[in-house]
Design a protein that fits this description.
The chain is an alpha+beta fold. The chain has helices spanning 13-16, 19-42, 109-120, 224-234; strands spanning 88-94, 97-103, 127-128, 131-133, 138-141, 166-167, 173-174, 183-186, 199-202, 218-222, 237-239, 247-249, 254-262.
Length: 263
């Protein structure tokens, strides 16, 4: 028969919880809680030690006052450079007068950002308004390399925006825009997302003939004084069989510079 060994009697409660014992236990508990807090704080980042993926660093935005180095060519469309909560007005200083245009950030933010960035790089300085077409009441510019509609542009295009663009059976597009005198509008080719830098002003009611296309992005509107300047420009038009546009102004009309005002 196996014999049972007798365990020694446990210490009394008074012995177990003597002052010295209680002090040591308290210190151990404090150290354990402190370690737990450290672990929780150190691990609060999500539990993964893998480094976050590196994001591409966009090019710096141009100086807001246009004091930076002029630039005509880019590798990609501009990064976002607009400030929130402010309005933007483009002031065109031309050889025929001043045109103030309120830019429409709410409907066409990417288009406005593109125009503001190009303007601050001096892209449009000393460029011709090279195409006058009274049949649709437009004056076109924004081609600093060739001062013509064959200009290579800034090296990128911008996305369509401002509403729904519908692909047609003939391969073309129908967009959401309609047009009126005073509009500042992006020029484009027939394909989607094809605007870059060229623009045109609408000068009269004939521009509504473009409504059946609606693909040209309207991104600003001139004030009444500016519309009067535009209409006076169109009055300079004369027919010219030697012109690729069928005619043009009797003298060169030049955009000396554009400034961007914040409100």
């Amino acid at each position: 028969m196996a014999t049972k060994s007798r365990r020694p009697a446990p210490p009394s409660a008074a012995a177990r919880f003597s002052p010295a014992t209680r002090i040591v236990a308290g210190l151990l508990a404090f150290m354990m809680v402190g370690s737990l807090i450290f672990v929780v704080v150190a691990g609060s980042g999500g539990g993964s030690s893998a480094p976050a993926p590196a994001l591409p660093i966009p090019e710096d935005c141009p100086a807001p006052d246009g004091s930076g180095t002029p630039r005509l060519a880019f590798d990609s469309r501009p990064t976002w450079c607009l400030r929130s909560g402010v309005t933007y007005t483009a002031v065109f200083y031309t050889t025929e007068g001043e045109i103030r245009v309120a830019l429409d950030i709410s409907r066409t933010p990417e288009t406005v950002n593109n125009f503001v960035v190009l303007t601050r790089y001096g892209y449009y300085d000393e460029t011709l308004l090279f195409r006058f077409d009274p049949t649709i009441a437009i004056i076109q510019g924004g081609a600093p390399t060739t001062n013509s509609w064959s200009d290579p542009g800034p090296g990128y295009t911008i996305p369509d925006e401002g509403g729904q663009f519908i692909k047609l059976s003939n391969g073309g597009l129908r967009g959401p825009f309609s047009y009126r005198a005073g509009d500042l509008v992006m020029a484009r080719s027939a394909g989607p997302d094809s605007s870059g830098a060229q623009f045109f002003f609408a000068t009269g009611p004939e521009v509504s003939l473009l409504d059946n296309q609606g693909t040209y992005l309207v991104f600003g509107h001139a004030d009444e004084a500016g519309i009067a300047v535009l209409q006076a420009m169109m009055d300079l038009y004369e027919l010219d069989d030697t012109s690729p546009y069928g005619g043009g102004p009797i003298r060169d009309v030049v955009v000396r510079s554009i400034t961007i005002e914040l409100g």
